[in-house]
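Re-running the complex after MR caught last week's input typo. The corrected sequence lines follow. Everything else is unchanged.
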Amino acid sequence: MHLKTITTAVLAGSLLASPGWSQDDTEFTIPENQAATASQLAEAGLESDLAWDIVESLTTEIGPRLGGSEAEARARDWGVRTLTELGFANVRIEEFEMPYWERGELDVAIVSPFPQAMAATELGGSAATPEGGVTAEIVFFESFDDLQDAPAGVLEGRIAYINDRMVRAHDGAGYGPANRKRSLGWIEAQARGAVGLLIRSVGTDSHRMPHTGNMSRVTENTLAQGSLSDVAADYVRATYPDLAEAPARSQIPAIALSAPDADQVERIHRMGEAMEVSLRASGGWQSTTTSGNVIGEIVGRELPEEIIVIGGHLDSWDEGTGAVDDGAGIAITVAAARLIAELPENPRRTIRVVMFGAEEVGLLGGFDYAQRYADSLGDHVVASESDFGAGPVWRLSSNVSADGTAAMDEILRIIAPYGVIRGERAGGGGGPDIIPMAMRGVPTFRLEQEGSDYFDLHHTPDDTLDKIDPDELAQNVAVWAATVYLAAELDVEFRTADEQAGRD
Amino acid sequence: MHLKTITTAVLAGSLLASPGWSQDDTEFTIPENQAATASQLAEAGLESDLAWDIVESLTTEIGPRLGGSEAEARARDWGVRTLTELGFANVRIEEFEMPYWERGELDVAIVSPFPQAMAATELGGSAATPEGGVTAEIVFFESFDDLQDAPAGVLEGRIAYINDRMVRAHDGAGYGPANRKRSLGWIEAQARGAVGLLIRSVGTDSHRMPHTGNMSRVTENTLAQGSLSDVAADYVRATYPDLAEAPARSQIPAIALSAPDADQVERIHRMGEAMEVSLRASGGWQSTTTSGNVIGEIVGRELPEEIIVIGGHLDSWDEGTGAVDDGAGIAITVAAARLIAELPENPRRTIRVVMFGAEEVGLLGGFDYAQRYADSLGDHVVASESDFGAGPVWRLSSNVSADGTAAMDEILRIIAPYGVIRGERAGGGGGPDIIPMAMRGVPTFRLEQEGSDYFDLHHTPDDTLDKIDPDELAQNVAVWAATVYLAAELDVEFRTADEQAGRD
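Corrected-run output:
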């Protein structure tokens, strides 16, 4: 077999424009025929309509599919049908039980000084208002930090409002900071006596589109992490004594306003006017329900027990049709795998495509997967999820062994022509549903997508098919097909020695 | 007084780049001091924050203000307060009675083959569904024309859906053709036995934002214009025999889907699937209510009885805060007039600023004005409304006497540096609320705005303050201040001999 002779060490010397191209002396060479196959897969991906057809089918024929809902069950059937029709092996649903929260009716209005209705949405986990709703004064906080600094009792009988804006960034870096108010605002407000929480939507658009999203439950772990203020932590210990048994859930309505409505609240506040707001919300927790992961495989020809996990999440928030979050991720990974399955022979390792269930409501499919496969996670060679919309892949990050990192450096050379640069070599994660298995040592990589606009749509009714650019979607398929093929085919160990030891 | 000596005839010869600059031999010269004053006003307009402050105040302190609603009454009080504080004379409300339609609750969902909720809004004048709603098959029409071509009875017990898209255009030229389905779709559907009408929103965006808007009532005039199909015309004559007494109103629910939802319907239709949709709508006509125009004046120093009418409409649709439609028009014209009022002396003629009421629901304020002032319309020298958003003015059209046209050509030279070219010299209208007085012979001009994006927001919840660019708003004020000042000051007759004769 004729091998490429250029090593990463040589490249590091010759490509002055790529400082840090190779950070150690580990060398790896992709055999020429495998490099050629990967490039052919990428070219085929660029020409393929399959991902578009998949996401069009999912968003049209199923539409919104909240984790645990009847619509998500229909989506699982769709997933089985789709994977079967595309020739995947071992197609199956792996069900799990889950707590189920459902949106209700919602009315939010400024009562005084300037009466008017607001565009708003309940956050996942929000409690209903008392029958007839609640009307109370707003206490305006510039930021989540300001709320955390507020003394106990300051919100007694009032509604907390948190105003901070999300910063737009290529890689979505603004999400984490802005999202604190959504995930833990409720407990900080409730701890201080609030009868409700309003937040500026976690998003980057300026449309009348409130962004929903899950609130965090408070666990022993939350307390241990120190992410709560002392006021909230003390309150949690006093109010939820059985925290080890059942995590603390919100007892107050928690609601996001659209950006223009948040602007309105901010303007009125800056005028020095006291503001009364009425809330009427009926969402809440329902009976336990069923979700599940849908799985299909391309069985490895030489090492079938070694698993590459790729996928997206099948569920969506309930107000959009889940096109960019995460129909696109399902479509990209299924289409990429299908292209690989069309090769004359399967790759050496098994490619397992997972359509994770109930991601939006707590990575439940990811946790179920990691638990269900706890005994075989040592056989999981590397894992990655596509879950950041449908923008083009621009960066490859990885968190794998030294040998695997050198291989990833070489894989990058194959996909670089499609507009991809090398990112982190010891981080970057593998996507939300991969976290539970990564916590147990499964190596990860990520094909990072351009996401400047992602949070314009994220968790809004506006997450619909028309927002996907078919060419950008196809670029994703191209890059995924080449990368996943090589991960499954190359004679390289992505796991560290420790991880491999964990196999036994 | 030193006069500018360049005439339009000279300019026509010297400015080769402006073919048609002057189309007849009429000459007009703007006295130099008046030209200088106009330019100073324009410069002051460009620097002024007043229009922004006005539209911010209206959209924040009143917010949505449907014609005839309690909120519109609050807006009238706001108008009186605003005009009084700004020093206008003869500030008053001129009330009128009006029929009042109010939105209700609405649920629209695809029942089969792919159950999912739709983002939709009732059109103004829509009838409620029977208690419990209605579920029926959709009949898909590519266009309003296709519906008009359909035979009688074809929609018996079914729901008509009209799919045609609005074309995006600088001057909004796509609105008229697309709007036929909104204004008269209901009667064409009802005439054929439909139990409901769904349309693709009349708009140019692709957001989950349905566009509402008024449906036309059918009158003797509608029949005379021949805008109905024979099927519909025959049906109207048979079903609404008292048309001369009371116009025909919809007896079926009429609903607009957002563009992404319309895409969904279209996709399912193209798949060849029959579609069942459920509608539950509770909007409808209420008791007669009160609206009104709010008026303030800058009394002319020499010819106080000669009136220049400018303004915008005070009402908005009920789902947005009416920033671009038409808070901007109110703000631009009030701010421009205020700048003129700050001159050392008032212009020769009276400038009357009118905040028209209930425009969206049938130009009711405009009709009331033309009727109320029927006897003095001959004293109305020229009239214009700003009602096309907050984009920059790019073209001056006019429909005035030959002398007046020559003067407008010269006014154009003053405002051209702000990015304005000359448009129609015998047309262009004066804006919606001006139509009733223009029909009775009042000359008009229009400062046409760039409106490529206007129909992204028009009649949606997304019509909010954040969509206005303060610099573009100020450009409007600049151009309006210069133009209106000159119209009120110049020694020129905008009315034709006939119109002047009508004064007596």
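None of the earlier attempt is carried over here. Residues 1-22 of chain A have pLDDT under 50 and may be disordered. Chain A touches chain B at residues 56, 60-64, 71, 110, 113-117, 119, 206-209, 259-260, 263-264, 267-268, 271, 320-321, 460-462, 464-467 (CB under 8 Å).
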